[in-house]
Each structure stands twice: as structure tokens, then as C-alpha cells.
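pasting for ref. prot 1 ->
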Amino acid sequence: DFNFSLMPYNDEYKLHRRVFMGILGPGSVQKFNRIQEYASRKLLRRLLNDPEDFVDHLRLYVHINHILADE
């Protein structure tokens, strides 16, 4: 397990923080926001057309968010 918040402040800490901020920093929010908007629209359209398959639609929503966030 890894928890860089408990690391001593040194060069290794700075490296981990830089990587972390590159992935989840303020500039990254816009990237994830677009992904969530796309997946949300897709989910809502599917729910309107076929509400009985709610669980399948939710699974697709989670997968879309996961896959596109990794790109």
C-alpha cells in the first residue's frame, strides 16, 4: 500500500506529489468533466428508451467513465 501524504518531505515526496497533481490536479477537472457529461447523456438516453435495463445502463455508465478517464 502507498500513502504519499504520510511520506517525509523530500525529493521522493515531491516526485509523487507532482505525478498526483498531474493526474488529479485542477487542470484535470475539465478533462473528467467532459467524460462525465458524455457518459451522463448516454445513460439518460438509455434510461428514457429502456428503463427496465437500469442495472445494465448503470454498468455501461461506470465503464465509459473508467475507460475514457484512462485515455
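and prot 2 ->
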Amino acid sequence: EPVDAETTQAVVSRCLRRGLIVGATTTATAGPGNVIMVGPPLIVGEDDLAFIATTLGEAVDDLDGRAEMSR
């Protein structure tokens, strides 16, 4: 089941605190507000992709039971 906009915003906030700039549909487009948007540059390297994946994973893990989310 999809998560709510509050949970999505919590993940976005945790990413921002770790230095990863992401957005959510709650601030960019109309909709259910449960989509996180990532826009790396076209010249993104493997280290950058690893940072993005790790940071998103840690942000979701930090929720610790607030919502059941799969990565």
C-alpha cells in the first residue's frame, strides 16, 4: 500500500539533512504526494549514484516503523 504525503515528506527531510536534494510530488505537482523525485546531472558518476541510493535507503530506514516501505 502506498505511503501518505506526511511519510514522503519525512523521507525528503531526512535526505536534505544528509545533503541529498530531492523533491516530492507534494511540492511539485498535484497528486497523492507519495513520489520522491531525484534529478542527478547527466554526468553523474558511480560514487554519486551510490550516495543517492545509500542516502535514500538510510532516510527510509530512519522512519523505523512509521510506515512499511519497500526499496
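The two ends are 13 Å apart (CA to CA).
DSSP finds three helices and two strands in the chain.
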